Recover the amino acids of this structure.
């Protein structure tokens, strides 16, 4: 019997080509009953070479299935450990303080809000650094600290601009601060602070 794919001659009863592994058509007589032994032979092959190819194929499939089962779907998820809980709580507390400030000083204008927000953002960043992130999350924690620092800088710039700047300059600074706060929210989610991520707020005061 010749392989329909590569043309290699194979022995009668072989189920797979000994050269390329392609499935070979085994002649059957539908009208005659086939014993269980014959069906097994057709499945695995009747020669030692055919059985060997079948065995290798089965083993490869078993290894692939075992590897799939061994994969933990939550392997890449950030664990809800003591660090995550503490960082999440700090994040929520900081956001609550931000909300209080925005409500309390909104009537005084964006400059007043910005001046009050700067120390809150600075304290958030400082306390986050003191939590000492685990080795597998140090880079993510640094990203959040960097985003907080950038937001702090932008809000401080807004506070300075609001003292005597034109409306368009104040609005431009407010937009920059808002863009920086978006990066904070992304870093919060990246660090796995799920509860704080759900409480997304704008860190920049609204200047119109």
């Amino acid at each position: 019997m010749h392989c329909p794919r590569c043309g290699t001659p194979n022995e009668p009863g072989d189920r797979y080509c000994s050269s390329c592994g392609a499935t070979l058509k085994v002649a059957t007589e539908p009208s005659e009953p086939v014993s269980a032994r014959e069906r097994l032979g057709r499945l695995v092959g009747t020669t030692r070479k055919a059985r060997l190819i079948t065995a290798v194929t089965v083993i490869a499939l078993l290894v692939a299935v075992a590897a799939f089962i061994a994969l933990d779907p939550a392997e890449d998820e950030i664990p809800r450990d003591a660090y995550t809980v503490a960082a999440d709580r700090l994040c929520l507390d900081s956001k609550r303080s931000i909300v209080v400030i925005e409500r309390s000083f909104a009537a005084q204008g964006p400059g007043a809000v910005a001046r009050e927000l700067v120390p809150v953002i600075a304290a958030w960043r400082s306390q986050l650094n003191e939590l000492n992130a685990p080795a597998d999350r140090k880079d993510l924690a640094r990203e959040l600290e960097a985003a907080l620092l950038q937001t702090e800088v932008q809000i401080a710039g807004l506070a300075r601009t609001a003292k005597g700047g034109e409306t368009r300059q104040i609005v431009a600074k407010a937009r920059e601060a808002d863009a920086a706060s978006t990066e904070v929210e992304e870093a919060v989610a990246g660090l796995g602070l799920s509860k704080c991520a759900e409480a997304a707020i704008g860190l920049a005061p609204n200047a119109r």
About this structure: DSSP finds seven helices and no strands in the chain.
